[in-house]
């Protein structure tokens, strides 16, 4: 009889412990699912495509046909084998993959632009390391056939000017179909792709080729924007392009003295705003900046490199948006730009990703609660916490 009673008690204890263990597993699983999956949907779901003036008076079918929906992000900096710790890689690359895939699923853009520094160690990578980095990138940033991906080169992909070689440039071009001086026209909108690393102006082989392509493209665009009744012998044999003023896409920003005039929660920290920028390192040189504006007269310039947000106006009428980094490794509050663009106008809006600090706070709070639950279950609270333990015990008894 005693043996049977003892067996029953042990069975009940085992059942209670298994039940408690199951509850802990459910709790931990719920926190993980929320922090690693659901939070991306909750945050990005709040982002809405901006309305462009010309598209406000159209119905949905006309808007879908005429408005180009573009996502612009920058500076993903996928870590390499030299400086990249496996845990750092795992954490930051998961964040970027979930952010990108969630944004594609929820927002369904027509085109995505990545403004350089795709890799952190492209300038040093061996062929094998490069192949591995490319494989990881293609897994993280895979996209459906309904979306186009355009990748611009940055200094970390091929090195600064003094590190840049034809081999590195060709290697990047082969993977991403990138060419400096390339024109992409979608829905009558002209995008000019610039290898800003090659805008050194010293006549190096890569620089000379890149600038020659840009000059030729500038001539085509300028001829296409002339009025039909304007006669120009130089334009008689030139292939006509859409007359829309181009949008410049590049990694380096055009020249500005510093980020002193930049504002917003994701701009440069106050203690760094007044640090002067170094030409050809932090920003393009004044000469290269003047050249690009003179050649293309763009209606918008989009750049990256600084990892922080900034909006400046060149010559009193040409806006430039510096897009912040997409990675937690470079900032706590990464983001991307959403653009609704038509040939005559555009509208931009920023979409913030989950803050790394907030997710860390959730994990810390969940961890503390988990410890409290375990201590209460095994009645291991120290005297000051007896009251809480009795409350939990009473709740369990009920």
UniProtKB/TrEMBL annotation:
Any one of the GO BP annotations: GPI anchor biosynthetic process
Pfam families, per the entry: Metallophos
Stored Gene3D superfamilies: 3.60.21.10
CDD domains associated with the record: MPP_MPPE1
Source organism per UniProt: Nyctibius bracteatus
Topology of this chain in the membrane: Multi-pass membrane protein
Stored InterPro entries: Calcineurin-like_PHP, Metallo-depent_PP-like, MPP_MPPE1, PGAP5/Cdc1/Ted1
Keyword Hydrolase: yes
One GO MF term: phosphoric diester hydrolase activity
Function: Metallophosphoesterase that catalyzes the removal of a side-chain ethanolamine-phosphate (EtNP) from the second mannose of the GPI-anchor protein intermediate. Participates in the glycan remodeling steps of GPI-anchor maturation to allow an efficient transport of GPI-anchor proteins from the endoplasmic reticulum to the Golgi.
Source organism phylogeny: Eukaryota, Metazoa, Chordata, Craniata, Vertebrata
Main subcellular localisation: endoplasmic reticulum
UniProt key word Hydrolase: yes
PANTHER family recorded: METALLO PHOSPHOESTERASE RELATED, METALLOPHOSPHOESTERASE 1
Entry GO CC: endomembrane system; endoplasmic reticulum-Golgi intermediate compartment membrane
Residue ranges of every copy of the Calcineurin-like phosphoesterase domain listed in the record: 69-308
Transmembrane segments: 20-43, 360-381
Family membership noted in the UniProt record: Belongs to the metallophosphoesterase superfamily. MPPE1 family.
Protein name as annotated: Metallophosphoesterase 1
Cofactors required: Mn(2+)
Domain of life: Eukaryota
Keywords: ER-Golgi transport, GPI-anchor biosynthesis, Hydrolase, Manganese, Membrane, Metal-binding, Transmembrane, Transmembrane helix, Transport
């Amino acid at each position: 009889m005693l043996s049977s009673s003892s067996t029953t008690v042990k069975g009940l204890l085992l059942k209670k412990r298994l039940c408690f263990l199951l509850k802990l597993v459910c709790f931990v699983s719920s926190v993980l699912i929320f922090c690693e999956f659901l939070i991306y949907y909750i945050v990005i779901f709040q982002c809405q495509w901006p309305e462009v003036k010309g598209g406000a008076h159209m119905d949905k079918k006309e808007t879908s046909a005429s408005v180009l929906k573009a996502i612009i992000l920058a500076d993903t900096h996928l870590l390499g084998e030299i400086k990249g710790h496996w845990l750092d890689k795992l954490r930051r690359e998961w964040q970027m993959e979930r952010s990108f895939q969630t944004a594609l699923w929820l927002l369904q853009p027509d085109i995505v632009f990545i403004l350089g520094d795709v890799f952190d160690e492209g300038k040093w990578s061996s062929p094998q390391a490069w192949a591995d980095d490319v494989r990881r990138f293609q897994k993280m940033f895979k996209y459906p056939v309904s979306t186009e991906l355009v990748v611009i080169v940055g200094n970390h992909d091929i090195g600064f000017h003094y590190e840049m070689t034809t081999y590195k440039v060709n290697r990047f071009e082969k993977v991403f179909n990138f060419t400096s001086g390339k024109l992409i026209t979608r829905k009558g909108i002209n995008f000019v792709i610039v290898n800003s690393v090659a805008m050194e102006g010293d006549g190096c082989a890569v620089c000379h080729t890149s600038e020659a392509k840009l000059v030729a493209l500038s001539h085509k665009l300028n001829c296409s924007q002339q009025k039909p009744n304007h006669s120009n012998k130089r334009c008689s044999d030139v292939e006509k392009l859409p007359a829309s003023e181009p949008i410049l896409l590049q990694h380096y920003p055009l020249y500005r003295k510093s980020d002193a005039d930049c504002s917003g929660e994701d701009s440069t920290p106050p203690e760094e705003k007044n640090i002067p920028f170094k030409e050809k390192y932090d920003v393009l040189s004044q000469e290269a900046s003047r050249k690009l504006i003179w050649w293309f007269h763009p209606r918008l310039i989009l750049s990256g490199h600084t990892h922080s947000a900034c909006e400046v106006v060149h010559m009193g009428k040409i806006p430039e948006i510096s897009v912040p980094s997409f990675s937690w490794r470079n900032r706590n509050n990464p983001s991307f730009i959403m653009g609704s663009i038509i040939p005559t106008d555009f509208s931009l809006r920023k979409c913030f990703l989950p803050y790394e600090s907030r997710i860390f706070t959730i994990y810390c709070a969940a961890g503390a609660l988990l410890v409290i639950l375990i201590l209460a279950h095994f009645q291991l609270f120290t005297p000051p916490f007896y009251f809480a333990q009795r409350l939990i015990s009473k709740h369990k008894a009920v």
